């Protein structure tokens, strides 16, 4: 089962990247992003792709420029996540055959992203919009639009967000912060997955 959960490994380092990815995949999380403001993010992405590229969708987050999209593609990444809606970044991502999840907060940004070819939308920061915000946004979006809530959505409120029509979630510090061991991340990932599975049951 592929769950609509994107693990955000902000601060992960290349020597631990492949092991952290294995831990997440084993727990049932198969979409992973390494934010570009992490240490040597392209090396971490390349290390994960080398070992796990056939088992997970792996790429970068906090992608702000077309050049960064090109760099992630060069490292083998298949996923581009941004905190903002930059149509040039989206178009470059799709031109290179990667999945595009730009950040949006307003209908204007949402439609600009979709018109540029985005595969899904990252509602960010979701905590400011709340479940009521995504519900209101959904009323005007095309029916099959994927909307992921990022920032403020997690194990304790998955059900509220899903009831309000969220399709998926990006999970950061609740899963990984620098200094955690693979066992720590495994325990957190299992708890997140169990909470998500319970929320959709």
From TrEMBL:
Metabolic or biological pathway: Carbohydrate acid metabolism
Top-level lineage group: Bacteria
One Pfam match: Aldolase
Keyword rRNA-binding set for record: no
Annotated InterPro entries: Aldlse_KDPG_KHG, Aldolase_TIM, KDPG/KHG_AS_2
Transmembrane annotation, as ranges: none
SUPFAM superfamilies found in the cross-reference section: Aldolase
Record's subunit section: Homotrimer.
Record's protein name: 2-dehydro-3-deoxy-6-phosphogalactonate aldolase
Organism encoding this protein: Parasulfitobacter algicola
